[in-house]
Amino acid sequence: MRVPSVFVLALLALALIAVAPAVETARSVDVNTIENAAGERSDAPLVDPEGSIVCFVVRTYWGHGDTWGDKSLRRILASLQNQTVESWEALLIVMDNRPFPELRKIVREANDSRIWVHAEWINYKYAPKEGGTWAPNYHNKLYNLTDMAVRACPDNSRWVVITNGDNLYDRHFVETIYSAPPDVDAVAVDFYSRYQRPTAEPCERFEEGDGVPPCKENGMRFCQTDLAANAYKLERLLAEDRRFGLVDPGGTHGANDGIMAQLLKTAGWKRNSPTSKGRASGAQA
Ligand SMILES: *[C@@H]1O[C@H](CO)[C@@H](O)[C@H](O)[C@H]1NC(C)=O
Ligand SMILES: *[C@@H]1O[C@H](CO)[C@@H](O)[C@H](O)[C@H]1NC(C)=O
Ligand SMILES: *[C@@H]1O[C@H](CO)[C@@H](O)[C@H](O)[C@H]1NC(C)=O
Questions:
Q1: Where does the record locate the signal sequence feature (predicted)?
Q2: Is 245 in the pocket of ligand 3 (CB under 6 A)?
């Protein structure tokens, strides 16, 4: 996706954020076991008995489709459908100058009422690139649309996760969010990126290195986080009228995600306790 970020080039191809927290702790909500289609009680997904959900705002475009893209949209949707906790919905938004004709088909074939298209803005005005470089307002425009989508999350949304169609979630991701203590406002999980060089200067961290990248610690700070790896309490986000589209006025590099994370942290948003145990223990940072 044409993702606003200071790591613009890197994030362009940031195809894989596999958020892989291992959850060992007891769940903070009681969960019901449901039966899967085959009637077996296996790894059947669990629901939040209070009926709340995680609202995923998925920013996508034709480049995530099957024919002209990398087929990533199907993958992220499958990774959501694979969640151990099924209390989520996904709103899809598109803003581009090129249509995404396969979008409806992909959503239809996912055959899941939790997945729906919220906005499909196709217009020459939304061209991401102009003459090979990012159109000056593209990132902020997309973040403005993102802010609108956040406000369209269903009423029972407790959390919001803003992501891009080429990311991928570990199946315990939603479960991890629900495992956070009740007073937590932001769940920040560590993440993988193909474009990572943890030993480099922070802002170069997404540059491609050799081999498989290690899990990146989510610092909820500029250059040390990723849009898709944070879940925010929707109620507080709305009460404080936080808008990604406004945190970097005139900004062209799209670092809105890191700026927002840092703003919230500075404003005293309580995040899940960092463990810094890293990948081995699957800690949620
Ligand atoms: C979904 O779960 C199945 C079964 O565990 C697994 O084979 C598949 O790779 C998962 N798909 C995604 C996209 O996570
Ligand atoms: C879609 O899902 C419904 C209910 O989960 C199921 O009954 C139906 O067979 C599915 N349709 C397709 C085409 O898979
Ligand atoms: C984003 O929305 C704000 C108002 O909410 C507006 O002032 C700003 O111009 C918009 N940004 C772009 C790039 O359209």
A1: 1-22
A2: yes
